[in-house]
Amino acid sequence: MAQEEKENNVVVQPRRVISLLGAATETLFRLGLGDRLVGRSHECDYPRAVLSLPCISRPRLDVNGSSKEIDDTVRLRSAAGEPIYKLDDDVLSEIAPFDLLIAQDHCRVCAVTPSDINQSKVMACANVNQLVLKPS
Questions:
Q1: Are 60 and 86 in contact (CB under 8 A)?
Q2: CA triplet 4, 26, 20: central angle to 5 degrees?
Q3: DSSP letters for the chain
Q4: How far apart are CA 51 and CA 11, in angstroms?
Q5: b/e 5-32 (16+ beta carbons within 10 angstroms → b)
Q6: pTM for the complete prediction?
Q7: Is the peptide bond before 14 cis (omega within 30 degrees of 0)?
């Protein structure tokens, strides 16, 4: 995996990974690393095998509203500096420990961001490595 750390000069690869970005989840499966995933975001739905993993995020708004209602809510939350997504601290506590959280910081509306992760009250999130994808 891309994220590695050294412990006593031995390279250690993450064994328990949570992906909060659909594209990262798909990539892990394509690389044959899907068995390392222990949690996923509410948007991770491919491949189908990922649906058996605990879902640890959800939007903080009604996604069943009209496009205008969703857009208005997102704009209000963004203007107020409020997060769009929430992590499920209970589920995170149940699946801890984990070695790596994969997120993105390109768009706070599109998917869970490091800021959303940092709002979690679960200690495992405070001390875990984060791989933050930054598309260019």
A1: yes
A2: 65
A3: ----EEETTEEE--SSEEE-SHHHHHHHHHTT-GGGEEEE-TT---SGGGGGSPB-EEESS-TTS-HHHHHHHHHHHHHTT--SEEE-HHHHHHH---SEEEEE-S-TTTS--HHHHHT---HHHHHSEEEEE---
A4: 31
A5: eeeeeeeeebeebbbbbbbbbbbbbeee
A6: 0.81
A7: no
- pLDDT by residue for the chain (136 residues), tens digit each? 444 555 566 667 889 999 999 999 999 999 999 999 999 999 999 999 999 999 999 988 888 888 899 889 888 988 888 888 888 989 998 998 899 999 888 777 677 877 878 777 777 777 788 888 887 7
